[in-house]
Amino acid sequence: MLLPDSKTELVRRGNKVVYDLGDKIVKVFNETKPVSDVFNEALNLARINECGIRSPKALEVSQLENANGWALVTEKVPGTTLAEKMTAEPQRFGEYLEMFVDLQIEIHGYTSPLLNRQRDKFARMIDSLDQLNATTRYNLQERLDGMTKEFKVCHGDFNPSNVIVGDDGQLYVCDWAHATQGSLLPTLPPPTCSLPSTARTRPRPTWSSTATAPTCPCRLCVSGRASSPLPSSLVSAT
Questions:
Q1: At residue 201, does pLDDT exceed 50?
Q2: CATH at 26
Q3: DSSP 151
Q4: 196: three-class secondary structure by DSSP
Q5: Average pLDDT over residues 216-227
Q6: What values do phi and psi take at 38, rounded to 5?
Q7: Are 121 and 161 part of one and the same domain?
Q8: pLDDT tens for residues 2-36?
Q9: Strands, DSSP E only, in 37-129?
């Protein structure tokens, strides 16, 4: 794949750059990104497309010409990210927050039997923690085994910068690299809400288009009904 000179850079993070090609979006990874991860993200997105969640269609995975690395091409959804809207219209922050929460609830209502299993991912992560002794890793695996067995679609990096408010008024979700099927609880914030009580009733924008959501963007968190059996270091990587 050869990128056209007319491309427009949208965002640059870590080992990737995202470009607008006009009618398509291309995510370009450098040589540090394993090829298997690029294909896995494309496969995740294809499975999300098939299960019915509103998301950009996966179009192509290609090796870059005249450069080391690979690219994932998706369709372009005309619109604006929810994070940008929250920043541009702070007076509507509460309304946008409700949309964000309702969208997460909607996503958790879907299933995709061929997605990677969340439980298997956690188990691999626990086993790879060499800085923890064997007893601690065993205890974490025990807690993992005690999790409720569910098979809901979990995005893995659900924040307003990954939600597009389409020109058609619909919400679309992008960036499914970390998607799994499993329990929704590890994807929710801890029950102790970090925002003051006034912020819960009159929210204020606290992130930009390149930042993640605040630590309590859901009704479950505010009501204290969310609880994860795993430490936050693992939950944040779901």
A1: no
A2: 3.30.200.20
A3: -
A4: coil
A5: 40
A6: -65, -45
A7: yes
A8: 888 899 999 998 899 999 999 999 999 999 999 99
A9: 58-63, 70-75, 79-81
Q: By the 8 A CB rule, do 71 and 64 touch?
A: yes
CA atoms within 13 A on the CB side of 61: 15
Domain that holds residue 28: 8-75
93 lies in the same domain as 120: yes
The predicted-structure confidence for 100-142, as pLDDT tens digits, reads as follows: 999 999 999 999 999 999 999 999 999 999 999 999 999 999 9
Taken in order 10, 89, 178, 124, the sign of the CA dihedral is positive
Alpha-carbon distance of 120 to 144, in angstroms, equals 10
Taking a C-beta distance cutoff of 8 angstroms, is the pair 156, 149 a contact? no
pLDDT band of residue 221 (cuts 50, 70, 90) is very low
Question: Can you tell me the mean pLDDT for 136-151?
Answer: 93
Q: Residue 223 is inside which H or E element, if any?
A: helix 219-223
**Which CATH number is 182's domain given?**
3.90.1200
Has residue 3 been placed in a domain?
no
Helix (H, G, I), strand (E, B) or coil at 117: strand
Per-residue tokens: 32: 């540090």
